[in-house]
Amino acid sequence: MDQQSARKAVETVFRLERARLVAGLTKVTRDITLAEELAQDALVAALDRWPHDGIPGNPGAWLMMTAKRRAIDRLRQQAMQARKQEAVAHEIALHHGQAIEEIEAAMDDAIGDERLSLIFTACHPLLSLDARAALTLRLIGGLTTAQIARAFLAGEAAILQRITRAKKAIAEAGIAYEVPRGTALEGRLASVLEVIYLIYNEGYAASSGKAAIRQDLAQEAMRLGRILAALMPDAAEVHGLLALMELQASRFAARVDAEGRTVTLPDQDRSRWDRLLIARGLQGLARAGAITGADGFYTLQAAIAGCHARAARFEDTDWRQIAGLYDRLLAIAPSPVIALNRAIAHSMAFGPEAGLALLAELEGVPQLQGYGPLHAARADCLRRAGQLPQAALAYGQAASLSTNASEGDFLRQRAAQCRAG
């Protein structure tokens, strides 16, 4: 194997194993930054050794053993320094009174639960949602600071500061590195799912920039969802969220044309929808429903996406079922955005006038002031109701509020079509 191929192989393996390494190392060191450094040390060692010695039969175990040795070396050095200074070392192994042998044993334990602990730590509700998302992409996703900055169209320094502050907040608050139990689990799991959903949504419908979709970010969110589903097989909403992401992602190839322009649901070529993702999403939806029923926040949204996925043509869409699902969703999670989506569904099921009536009720809601999708929904209802001049104005208003270039172009094009009659 040549040097370039070997390096690529090492980086691929490390990408797959990084979260496991950091999770296992954090379990012992109780220091996320130190765990990341040790994992990086193992990568450097692999880049040095594997091109010459070949890739080991169990590369993940090799990386963990190498990182473990680095950890033990550091802890021995710290213990020696502590004895010389006749003080108790601040590092975690000594702080907890662990012997080196105990540390070695702990490192050899199965680490599935440790990886889950790392996810719950990174997504602790003490942190802001943006901080949770950045830290999760760093620790579990293995993205670099530069990659996270590009994903969220933010400055690299700002993202680095966000991650650093999050780690510091975790350390200062003494957050337990563990999976919460009992009644605490539901609230903490909601925080984890919220983070994954945020990451996915930024990929599914980019809030700014030129691209309508950032598939790499959406794919990372789905990967995180699959990790969580494997570690928490009996959590209905975990399967509901993963099903939602897979069903929506199945339409990616049809959502933009060759020039990157937005293609609306009625005009999409459904032969380009990913049937494998649809099958997986529907299976996940069925599993979520079988665990605790289908009335979870993410499971209901997945059921809505499933209605679209099952329709061979746009005209076959069961809008009455979708409207009913939105009724249930609004009942368990009342919010202006869900109310807006419900109004759109009702307009499709019962006519544009029904949608306009529901939208009129939302126009005074403070959270929707200056919210482009509200004006876009109203424009669509007006267009379908034959009120083209009013529709053109509403499309123009929606376009002026959009921060995504592809979406803005689409809305301006619709406005022009309405003006042309």
From TrEMBL:
Q: Where is the RNA polymerase sigma-70 region domain?
A: 18-79
Q: What is the organism lineage in this UniProt record?
A: Bacteria, Pseudomonadati, Pseudomonadota, Alphaproteobacteria, Hyphomicrobiales
Residue intervals of the RNA polymerase sigma factor 70 region 4 type domain: 120-170
Q: Which organism's genome codes for this protein? A: Rhizobium halophytocola
Which PANTHER family is this protein grouped with? BLL6612 PROTEIN (PTHR47756:SF2), BLL6612 PROTEIN-RELATED (PTHR47756)
What's the protein name?
Answer: RNA polymerase sigma factor (Sigma-70 family)
Coiled coil spans: none
DUF6596 domain ranges (all copies):
188-288
SUPFAM superfamilies annotated for this entry?
Answer: Sigma2 domain of RNA polymerase sigma factors, Sigma3 and sigma4 domains of RNA polymerase sigma factors
Q: List the InterPro entries.
A: DUF6596, RNA_pol_sigma70_r2, RNA_pol_sigma70_r4_t2, RNA_pol_sigma_r2, RNA_pol_sigma_r3/r4-like
